[in-house]
Amino acid sequence: MPIECFQVDASDNVATMLQDVETGAEIDVLGGVSRKTVRAAQTVRAGHKVTLCAISEGEPIVKYGFQIGAATHAIAEGEWVHLHNCRSLYDARSSHLDVDTGSRTETHYA
Amino acid sequence: MPEMEWQGYLRPDGRKGVRNLLLVVYTVQCAEFVAHAVAQGEPDAHVIGFPGCYDNEYAIRLLLALARHPNIGGVLAVGLGCEYTQPARIAEVVRQSGRPAESFFIQENGGTRSSIELGKQMLAQLRERATQTPRVPMGWPDLTVGCECGGSDGTSGLAGNPVVGRFYDWLVDRGGSAIFEETVEMIGLRKVLADRAATAEVRRQLEQTYDKAESYCRSVRQYSVSPGNFAGGLTTIEEKSLGAVAKSGTREIQGVIRVAERPAHPGLWLLDSVPDETFMQFGYTNPNDTEGIMDLISAGSQIVLFVTGRGSVIGSPIAPLIKITGNSRTFRNMGDDIDFNAGCVLDGTSTMDEAALSLAQLVAETAAGSPSKPERLGHREYFIMYKHQNTPSLEQGCRA
């Protein structure tokens, strides 16, 4: 079974994983025009995004041909892009959430 | 191909329904138990209600729009007897629409047992009248379809919503009406939306609607993105918004309607459910998926599509809910609940056009009477709450 990700627009610097991928595995880029494959630098789960090229701090994260956020620090090719390294231009809370569950880290249940 | 016609129910205002249901409406939380007990064991009787004791113009407009929905053949309004919202006024407005309607207060009918008995007798009388509704041929130009997404994940913007968007283009091209909403999930897309306006006036409406949604989110410090969305791979509200707006397809937007308002003519319409600024600075815009679905039904949608990447088990009263996922794994995991797998376009087993056409086929079959999966399971979740919108009042509310 090939492992695939989907690039929506030619200008996108991230693609969405269609299956889970483990570190080191080669990923086929579907819909991709910028490149045909990318190697996973870490585990990325299905539905999550992987970089198609290195992205420097502050640079736009682009999906659907639009900016969906900005890199909070440098991200290497094949890395997972999520709450830990990408922030919204609108929603200030987005980069302060638990990276696995997406829940607020400041809410107390005790 | 689904260039088809089916048999609908002709209502006195000329609109056509795909179901012929009875609606039990309660006017305060205190009447909720009795209302559900009246409808229990009556498969054609659906229940909605407003929990508040103080009334609210917005909630009353919503109740009245739902009670006069084309899928509704008769209405029973049940109140306790202390609340502001008046069951008799609701029944009166429904009767003016040419539908049979009854109402009563529980306090005036001896409590729980006798009220349930009275309610069931009234339902039987309403059913007798409703079953005389004329059947007429119905096709795409008679149909209004709403779409909402919830429990979105990384597949929703790639498959689930784009397949609905392709179907929306197809429906609009055949003279049908399509409604999309969730303006708080269009953050960052002011220009994308405005560029699709049918006229300069609509462009102004779309820009205003967008600006209100963005300032609302900023003021309540809550963007419409949830832990489940993040866990499913969506990172920002901008990313979620781009995926969400894909369900509107590509056709021109004819205008903006508010909750309980109907599109003035066929085509693609945006529904604005965000509260307007008011002296009462409270309330949330779309507290949950069910609330948004109620809004789409209030705009006259006879069928509602619900795109859910992570999976959801809700249904809706009044209008059948068709559940769609773009995630083949979710479809396998929750097959009893989900009607349509748009994930086929990501698996490579289907093109976008093929998937949109099979969705059209499913919508036509459901319109013709075949129950959707939530209908089969008996899911009829509803949610009506306090909110403020500056929509012109239909009846100046229902205070006696």
Task: Walk me through this protein's architecture.
The complex is a heterodimer of chains A (110) and B (400). By secondary structure, chain A is mainly β. Chain A has one domain: Archaeosine Trna-guanine Transglycosylase, Chain: A, domain 4. Chain A has no helices and 9 strands. A 6-stranded mixed β-sheet of chain A has the order 4-3-1-2-5-8, with no helix packed on it. In chain A, strands 6-7-9 form a 3-stranded antiparallel β-sheet, with no helix packed on it. In chain A, a hairpin with a 2-residue loop joins strand 6 and strand 7. Chain A starts with a strand and ends in a 23-residue tail after the last strand. The model of chain A has no long low-confidence stretch (mean pLDDT 90). Chain B has 400 residues and is an alpha/beta fold. Chain B folds into 2 domains: 21-132, 3-Layer(aba) Sandwich (Rossmann fold), CATH 3.40.50; 140-377. In chain B, strands 10-11-9-8-12-13-14 form a 7-stranded parallel β-sheet, with helices on both faces. A 4-stranded parallel β-sheet of chain B has the order 4-3-5-6, sandwiched between helices. In chain B, helix 2 packs across helix 10 (289-298), helix 5 (156-173) runs parallel beside helix 9 and helix 5 crosses helix 13. Chain B is globular, with a radius of gyration of 20 Å. Mean pLDDT of chain B is 93; it is low at 395-400. The A-B interface holds A 6, 8, 16-18, 45-49, 61, 63-64, 66-69, 81-83, 86-91, 93-94, 97-98, 100-103 and B 153-155, 157-158, 187-188, 192, 214, 217-218, 221, 223, 225-233, 235-239, 242-243, 309, 327, 329, 346.
